[in-house]
Amino acid sequence: MADILMPKATAVWLIDNTTLSFEQVADFCGLHKLEVKGIADGDVAENMRGVDPISGGELTREEIRKGEGNPEYRLKKAESKIAHIPQPKRKGARYTPVARRQDKPDAIAWFIRNHPEVSDAQISKLIGTTKATITNVRDKSHWNSQNIKPVDPVTLGLCTQIELDEVVNKAVDRRKKMEAQAGIEGDGPGLRPAEDADAASQAVDPDTAGGDEPNADDIFSNFKG
């Protein structure tokens, strides 16, 4: 099963533009066969516009032809043409055009809401802002707080999707390691063993140890003349 960005919309396009079987479409898009049949019948994703996986780089025409020629064939997603391209390392702070600098608080708000695991230092380096600005956005003391709306930095043109994914993945990995370490260091003595608890509940009161419980006559005997 391939990891498709818009599975239902892709399925709509494949149903409308190819002779692939429901099983092949379902397998490629990560959907159930009956769901694909529902799309073909108009019961599911009605009026949804199809998305061409070929123009999106997720599938090739050759792969579709293979599937159309063999109903048992399972389509393979095309390899990304940009994922393996190494990104040049930047030196120093990122330069942001003046026209886009006002968008940085929106990007900061997006990180605070969606990825709190990303550190202020990472945000600062990625979009070229200051830690003071990040703090002001976080505690809502920024001069333009009432107009700040969370928008991802890729949409704002402050970084690329590859750069954003790299920062988020590093932050997630670091958080997992910190949580794992905290779990190890936080292990205490644990609960008392069941047999110890039972023994404690059955302990004998030292005032009554070695004898029978006092009765009413014993208690009031001291008050008789």
Automatic annotation (TrEMBL):
Region (Disordered) residue spans:
180-225
Top-level taxon:
Bacteria
InterPro entries in the cross-refs:
TrcR
- Supply the name of the protein: DUF1013 domain-containing protein
